[in-house]
Amino acid sequence: MSASGVMVNDVCLQEFQALKLKKQHKYVIFNLSGDNTEIIVEKVSSSTDYDDFIADLPESECRWAAYDFEFEQEGGGKRSKLTLVSWAPETARIKQKMAFASSKDALRRALVGIAIEIQGTEYSEVAYESVPDKANRGN
């Protein structure tokens, strides 16, 4: 449970495990339920096109996403790191931003194995080009 009293729905953990262990998904997008009492799965996708992922982040609403990010490591070699994206665009309502900010910790604790965390308020902050640098640094 988070500081806001929000619980993480069991389906969130099941879909994250399917992403992490079984590689059934490329990403999972999470949202708050309509009554703001629990974190739920909004969408799962196996699309490897990063642009599809970006398109699934709403322009004026907050979301979280777990993404299995693959990149070329400096010095060669392909790597994969589980990434938690906290999406809170500038155009989102203040009340929603506050609810998401106070609930993120519950989701973060539940998603064991996240290697990188990215916070984005505009699309350039979550653009594909911005992630490998964070991945190579380890965060």
Mass-distribution shape:
globular
The amount of helix comes to 25-40%
| Biggest β-sheet: strands ordered side by side in the sheet | 1-3-2-4-5-6
| Alpha-beta classification | alpha/beta
Total strands: the figure is 6
Count of DSSP-assigned helices? 4
Largest sheet: 6 strands, mixed
Question: What fraction of residues sit in β-strands?
Answer: 25-35%
Q: Which residue ranges are poorly predicted, with pLDDT under 50 across at least 5 consecutive positions?
A: none
Q: Terminal Cα separation, in Å?
A: 25 Å
Radius of gyration: 14 Å
Order of helical and strand elements: EHEEHEEHEH
Overall mean pLDDT: 92
SSE topology sketch:
Layout: E1 7-8, H1 10-20, E2 27-32, E3 38-45, H2 50-55, E4 63-72, E5 78-87, H3 94-110, E6 116-120, H4 131-137
Parallel strand pairs: 1-3, 5-6
Antiparallel strand pairs: 2-3, 2-4, 4-5
